């Protein structure tokens, strides 16, 4: 009899390598497609992901056929971690993968001895602040969002979670 265990709950979370760039780019762009409503460009590119891999790491969850279903970027900055590009493929959303990655990110940050996590959210993503507040993040201010391809005015909301 086949197992009914959901692979999203059991698939290991691993660190991405440069070999994952071709899978990460379309995953992130698909997850961030809603941003086309205010910026006229894809969310990321192969060059950007390769550059980020030189400064930080992506945690990924693979699907049953080795396709990447979800990812999150972590970059250590002194005693804190910047977390970005939390992306879950649209076909896999609302199934707990994002929360699983966030819990793993927090654990990694604690293991690294970091005091907290910092994120930036585009203010037009009005659904996101409440989700992050439920995970213990608090508002820390704003900063400009400067991009020549913006089609509507935007700014970043800064949020943080202390781990101590």
How does this structure look, described?
β2 and β3 form a beta hairpin. The protein is α+β, with helices and mostly antiparallel strands and 164 residues long. Helices cover 29% and strands 30% of the residues. The protein is built from 5 helices and 7 strands. The protein has a 7-stranded mixed β-sheet with strand order 1-2-3-4-5-7-6. It starts with 6 loop residues before the first helix and ends with a strand. The chain has a single domain, classed as 3-Layer(aba) Sandwich (Aminopeptidase). The longest helix has 15 residues.
Briefly, what is this?
By secondary structure, the protein is of the alpha+beta class. 29% of the residues lie in helices and 30% in strands. The chain has one domain (13-162): Gcn5-related N-acetyltransferase (GNAT) (Aminopeptidase).
């Amino acid at each position: 009899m086949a197992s009914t265990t959901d692979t999203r709950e059991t698939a290991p979370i691993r660190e991405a390598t440069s070999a994952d760039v071709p899978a990460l780019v379309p995953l992130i762009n698909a997850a961030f497609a809603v941003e086309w409503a205010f910026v006229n460009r894809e969310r990321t590119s192969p060059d950007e992901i390769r550059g980020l891999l030189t400064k930080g790491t992506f945690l990924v969850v693979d699907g049953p056929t080795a396709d990447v279903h979800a990812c999150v970027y972590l970059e250590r900055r002194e005693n804190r971690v910047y977390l970005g590009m939390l992306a879950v493929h649209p076909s896999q959303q609302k199934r707990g993968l994002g929360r699983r990655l966030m819990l793993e990110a927090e654990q990694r940050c604690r293991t690294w001895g970091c005091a907290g996590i910092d994120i930036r959210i585009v203010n037009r993503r009005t659904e996101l602040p409440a989700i992050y507040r439920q995970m213990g993040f608090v508002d820390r201010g704003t900063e400009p969002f400067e991009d020549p391809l913006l089609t509507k005015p935007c700014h970043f909301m800064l949020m943080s979670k202390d781990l101590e």
